């Protein structure tokens, strides 16, 4: 239970850091946008070194804001995946209820992790367009484990 609380605390701190970074990047972006408008007004809508500098600053702040958005999105996705994995392990191992799920016996967390890795590798291969294992492209992938074949 203590480990769960520590893990949650680490996630909250990381989320707070992501929110702060995103908020700061957004504020900098807004200031840069205002700078462009002020420079344009001060120059009478003429192109000057001041407007060029303001536009360049705006472009840089826009890129930094986009990076902060991407980092926040990646963090949220990683948390979602981790929560999903933890729930899957709990369901598969029966650790929450102590009862098998749908009459199936629980499987070990180690075996579940092995199966998860096998699925991830298959997804990566499919995303790369190969669709076949690089070790032996002519042999089909067999995700069964030794105890599966004995059944």
Automatic annotation (TrEMBL):
GO terms for biological process: cold acclimation; leaf senescence; regulation of DNA-templated transcription; root development. This is Mediator of RNA polymerase II transcription subunit 32. GO terms for cellular component: mediator complex.
């Amino acid at each position: 239970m203590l480990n769960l609380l520590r893990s949650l605390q680490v996630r909250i701190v990381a989320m707070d850091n992501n929110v702060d970074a995103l908020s700061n990047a957004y504020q900098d972006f807004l200031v840069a946008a205002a700078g462009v408008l002020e420079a344009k007004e001060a120059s009478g809508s003429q192109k000057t070194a001041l407007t060029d500098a303001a536009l360049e600053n705006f472009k840089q702040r826009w890129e930094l804001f986009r990076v902060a958005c991407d980092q926040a999105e990646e963090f949220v996705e990683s948390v979602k995946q981790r929560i999903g994995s933890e729930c899957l392990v709990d369901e598969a191992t029966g650790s929450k209820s102590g009862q098998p799920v749908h009459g199936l016996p629980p499987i070990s967390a180690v075996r579940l992790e092995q199966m998860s890795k096998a699925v991830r590798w298959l997804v990566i291969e499919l995303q790369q367009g190969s669709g076949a294992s690089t070790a032996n492209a002519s042999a089909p992938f067999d995700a069964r484990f030794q105890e599966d074949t004995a059944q």
